Amino acid sequence: MEDATSTNPQSLGFTDKLKSWLSWSWTYICAVWFAMVLTMIYVLRSPLKLQDTLTSASVFLNTLTPKFYVALTGTSSLISGLILIFEWWYFRKYGTSFIEQVSVSHLRPLLGGVESSSTTGLFSSVNGEAEPRPSVSECKVWRNPLNLFRGAEYSRYTWVTGKEPLTYYDMNLSAQDHQTFFTGDTQQIKAEDTVMQKAWRERNPQARIRAAYQAIEMNHECAAAYVLLAEEEATTITEAERLFKQALISQGCNSGKDINLLVYIKRRLAMCARKLGRIKEAVKMMRDLMKEFPLLGMLNIHENLLEALLELQAYADVQAVLAKYDDISLPKSATICYTSALLKARAVSEKFSPEAASRRGLSTAEMNAVEAIHRAVEFNPHVPKYLLEMKSLILPPEHILKRGDSEAVAYAFFHLQHWKRAEGALNLLHCTWEGTFRIIPYPLEKGHLFYPYPGCTETADRELLPTFHEVSVYPKKELPFFILFTAGLCSFTAMLAMLTHQFPELMGVFVKAVSPALLFH
Questions:
Q1: CA distance 112 to 24
Q2: Which of 406, 352, 420, 409 is nearest to 385 (CA)?
Q3: What's the maximum distance between 2 C-alpha atoms anywhere in the chain?
Q4: What is the pTM of this model?
């Protein structure tokens, strides 16, 4: 066994060397082969009667009418135009060139190339240490801590606009969350629990509601069934709150309390209080929940608390929460970064003037505010366009991708009002946010304050956000070479067709003069 393991690296090394040598020599072999073909053609030019063949070809081209050239160039323009349209559509939909993708996928392995899109490479972190580059599978989707109520909010939007604000992918993730989250602590699964597990998997909302009523008939103290009715059947926040209170009572009556279900119910009750204007009550409920269950920080209840405190304009309390959660060892979010920027911007924005700042320079407080904005924009570059109302907002999804467009939509939907309330904060953001991109290295090999922006956000955001929303993409992708090439080819052949149609005699003289020179040289 030891001999086998010791010789294996040698054999692998020889194979790698052979492959690398073949890849290196492939270009030179092709060049030598091409030179040999040219030499053979030159030597055999007399037996093959190449001179006579070229002469007859020239005579044939001279006999062609201008209509032939109009048809030829027109057809070429049409074909290249169709290719251009398809390439443009494919690029807008998938973010890459179809021809380039096929070339990379099928031709590069034949030519001995190496895939350049490997996700196992390394990049340098802020500290200069090598870190694994995040792959598509590592773009983790998180539950939106401020997600809306389906019956009281999402469904009302559908009734008014006729558009579905949630994607099937997003709702399927929620179903998986509910199945996992609401599984009881006890190993004994009751009949109503089985019904509820099937209910969360149902795609039809009415089927889910019927299953919830069926579970309540089996057990009037089935808390999960009341949760489903509060989320999906209640058409107002008041009705949803009543059902959540009933779920809380039912949960208290059960002998084996499910901690996850209990936390979920209390959190949604706090959110109901926030939406109904009882903000101080909501803040107290959130604080009590965080104090009672400190280990459930992954639920991001502090983001609900930050939003409620901002509504109360309790900025000192907001700063205290940020001091605890804006820590280098904890995962960041747009809420954390942009709330920190808002507090620092609020301190200087009222008297901030771009003209005055350019004359005298930035003060220490203004510099801190600008750096906080740059930090927030680097973490999520999609947010400013929503805060500055350069892009229209939609209802936030039930799940978000950190640093993605879905997170930006969710943050701006709830926090735009807080930025507007701080006088001058949006003006400061407008004047400074684009300066972030001059700090970040391009093409983003390294991050400045955070790791490099992941390249998988666009794909995940397209799954989370509805089709009628134009997904924000960062960094902006340059047009592929083949789109530019086909655009140039289409324009050039269309111009030739038009000139040949308008000036047939002149173009005929031009072709007769050029074609012999091209053929004989």
A1: 9
A2: 409
A3: 103
A4: 0.68
| Range list of β-strands (E), 87-230 | 122-124, 130-132, 141-143
**pLDDT-wise least confident of 89-93, 195-199, 276-280, 430-434:** 89-93
Contact 165, 154 (CB under 8 A): yes
Q: In the beta sheet, which residues pair with residue 143?
A: 399
Average pLDDT, the chain: 78
Residue 125 phi, psi dihedral angles, 5° rounding: -85, -175
DSSP state of 104: I
Give CA–CA dist 338/415, Å, rounded: 9
In the 8-state DSSP scheme, what is residue 468? T
Other C-beta atoms lying within 10 Å of the C-beta of residue 406? 30
Q: pLDDT (tens digit, 9 = 90+) per residue, 404-423?
A: 999 999 999 999 999 999 88
Exposed/middle/buried for residue 52 (C-beta within 10 Å: 0-12, 13-18, 19+)? exposed
Integer CA distances (angstroms), 376 to 313, 336, 344, in order: 21, 9, 12
| 3-state percent helix, strand, coil for the chain, nearest multiple of 5 | 70, 0, 30
Element (H, E) at 400: strand 399-401
pLDDT tens-digit profile of 248-266?
988 776 655 578 888 999 9
Query: CB atoms < 10 A from the CB of 283, how many?
Result: 21
- Reduce the DSSP state of residue 34 to 3 states and report it: helix
- Per-residue pLDDT band for 120 (boundaries 50, 70, 90) equals very low
Instruction: Please list, in sequence order, all residues whose beta carbon lies within 8 angstroms of the beta carbon of residue 453, skipping any fewer than 6 positions away.
Output: 381, 403, 440, 444, 447, 474, 475
How far is Cα of residue 159 from the mean position of the Cα atoms in its chain?
A: 28
- pLDDT interval class at 15 (50, 70, 90): low
**If you write DSSP's letter for every residue of 127-154 in order, what string do you get?**
TS-EEEPP-GGGS-EEE-TT---IIIII
How many whole angstroms separate alpha carbon 223 and alpha carbon 148? 20
Six token digits for residue 443: 């093409």
- Closest listed residue to residue 454, CA positions, set 375, 380, 374, 377: 380
Give residue 182's pLDDT: 76
Burial of 380 (0-12, 13-18, 19+ CB in 10 A): buried
Query: Three-state DSSP class for 219?
Result: coil
Beta carbons of 325 and 336 less than 8 angstroms apart: yes
**DSSP codes of every residue in 295-350:** T-GGG-HHHHHHHHHHHHT-HHHHHHHHHHH--TTSPP-HHHHHHHHHHHHHHHGG
Q: What confidence tens digit (pLDDT) does each residue in 351-376 have?
A: 777 777 777 777 888 888 889 999 89
